[in-house]
């Protein structure tokens, strides 16, 4: 495992930002780390990158204990809401970061990073004159400068337009092809769904689920069903065979099946019980529906930042 944590916990005063987090991230993956605002994602990334000390618990990153400097040399980190010196040019900034990480082949690595993020030719301009998207790209270039084995990206596409987001997705895929591991924190679930191999959901500082993306999304089909004549008694009878069947507030039914092939049998069953079937709509499970089920059950008032 390239990242492994055991009961990793961070408290800020009385506030528990991360509570007993257990993670196991395989090398070579794109790993999604998902949760609502204030769930504890950035705090967890900061503990993994050695920027914040855990209150308790332990972990290893790149085979070294959390905070180890030699492991940090092989990591890249794009923080959320970073801000660089406006008066520096893109090239100054990259040179500065290259000095910080003591890069030997500075010129080549800077050229590589600029090419990777699509900022070639723009490095001579001041960071203050960059658009938000360009600022995000220069931040990404800084993170990728030392050609890291493990890259933490905290909301890397938040300032980007749809084309910029697609570019970042392509960069992530390219990094994975080169053998790097990407730890991605993003609220853009369709993006996470497109690039991640595995995901962990965190809610109020606690891990609520970790799974491979294919296992998470391929297993189930949810159905919305409009029928006339359903009663609570009949629902109880049908639960023997269809445990997931439920009546929604608007009177329609919902059910989850493992396979498309089970749909005709369910339709036949409903009709055999004397119900009038108007509509039966299958939905493929998306990361968004899973996210809503796992961490979206409460109102906006529970958001903490
Ligand atoms: N330095 C700090 N001091 C005190 N509380 C903090 C500090 N950093 C984070 N917190 C609190 O810890 C909790 C988790 O915050 P964190 O930034 O890790 O969440 P997040 O999932 O990254 O949120 P977002 O998606 O909004 O960035 C929040 O309640 C936040 O207010």
Automatic annotation (TrEMBL):
Protein keywords: ATP-binding, Nucleotide-binding, Transport
Endpoints of the signal sequence: none
Domain ABC transporter, first and last residues per copy: 3-229
Single GO MF annotation: ATP binding
Pfam families: ABC_tran
Domain of life: Bacteria
Transcription in keyword set: no
Record SUPFAM superfamilies: P-loop containing nucleoside triphosphate hydrolases (SSF52540)
Family, per entry: Belongs to the ABC transporter superfamily.
Listed name of the protein: ABC-2 type transport system ATP-binding protein
Lineage: Bacteria, Bacillati, Bacillota, Clostridia, Eubacteriales
């Amino acid at each position: 495992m390239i990242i492994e944590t055991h009961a990793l916990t961070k408290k800020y005063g009385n506030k528990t930002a991360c509570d007993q987090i257990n993670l196991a991230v395989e090398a070579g993956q794109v790993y999604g780390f998902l949760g609502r605002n204030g769930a504890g994602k950035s705090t967890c990334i900061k503990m993994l990158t050695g920027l914040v000390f855990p209150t308790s618990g332990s972990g290893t990153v790149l085979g070294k204990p959390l905070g180890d400097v030699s492991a940090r040399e092989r990591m890249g980190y794009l923080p959320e809401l970073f801000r660089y010196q406006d008066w520096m040019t893109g090239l100054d900034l990259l040179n500065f970061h290259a000095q910080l990480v003591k890069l030997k082949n500075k010129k080549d690595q800077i050229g590589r990073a600029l090419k990777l993020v699509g900022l070639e030719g723009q490095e001579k301009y001041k960071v203050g004159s960059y658009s938000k998207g360009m600022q995000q790209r220069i931040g990404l270039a800084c993170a990728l400068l030392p050609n890291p084995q493990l890259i933490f990206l905290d909301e890397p596409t938040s300032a980007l337009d749809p084309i910029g987001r697609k570019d970042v997705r392509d960069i992530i895929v390219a990094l994975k092809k080169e053998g790097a591991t990407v730890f991605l924190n993003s609220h853009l679930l369709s993006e996470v769904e497109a690039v991640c191999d595995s995901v962990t959901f965190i809610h109020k500082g606690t891990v609520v689920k970790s799974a491979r993306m294919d296992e998470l999304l391929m297993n189930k089909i949810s159905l919305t069903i409009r029928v006339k004549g359903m009663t609570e008694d009949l629902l109880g009878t049908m639960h023997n065979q269809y445990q997931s069947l439920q009546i929604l507030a608007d009177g329609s039914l919902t059910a989850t099946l493992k396979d498309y092939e089970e749909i005709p049998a369910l339709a036949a069953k409903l009709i055999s019980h004397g119900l009038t079937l108007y509509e039966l709509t299958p939905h493929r499970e998306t990361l968004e529906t899973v996210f809503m089920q796992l961490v979206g059950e409460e109102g906006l008032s529970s958001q903490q930042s």
